[in-house]
Specification:
It is built from eight helices and no strands. The protein is mainly alpha-helical and about 140 residues long. The longest helix is centred in the middle third of the chain and has 19 residues. One of its GO terms (cellular component) is cytoplasm.
Length: about 140
């Protein structure tokens, strides 16, 4: 039927197609998974000099997310943690996942003057979420 898709269809056998569709879904949301209002606080948390403080601050920010955003982010990051476990096969290190998903999950409402700096911090925020998943998303 119209509008139904089957992941068994050959076009979905390439992991890059699936990943691209997932990234596109998140990029096309009216507001990113990390809402615009939390973009600056997330970036400021990543910039903190003390790694322990970074994790604590990001954990507080994550707790303040709307429930659907929290649940979706937790689910997606749990999956990406499983992807990282297969780094020997897929070459998806924490840093690579940060590069791929940082700008998709966490972006400013208006493009900043220094795009490169902003993107690096977006990537670092995703890396931090992955590196400390169990502390940021307690069971």
């Amino acid at each position: 039927p119209e509008g139904r898709l089957s992941l068994a269809h050959p076009e979905w056998s390439d992991v890059h197609v699936v990943t691209g569709a997932l990234k596109l879904f998140f990029r096309e949301l009216p507001e990113p998974l990390v809402p615009y209002g939390l973009f600056e606080p997330f970036i400021e948390a990543v910039k903190l000099p003390d790694p322990q403080e970074q994790v604590e601050r990001v954990a507080e920010l994550v707790k303040s997310l709307p429930a659907p955003n929290y649940a979706t982010l937790r689910y997606l990051l749990a999956h990406l943690c499983r992807v990282m476990e297969r780094v020997d096969v897929n070459r998806m290190t924490r840093q690579n996942i940060g590069i791929v998903f940082g700008p998709t999950l966490l972006r400013p409402e208006r493009e900043p003057g220094s795009l490169a700096t902003s993107m690096t911090q977006q990537n670092q925020a995703v890396e931090l979420l992955l590196a400390h998943f169990d502390r940021i998303f307690p069971a």
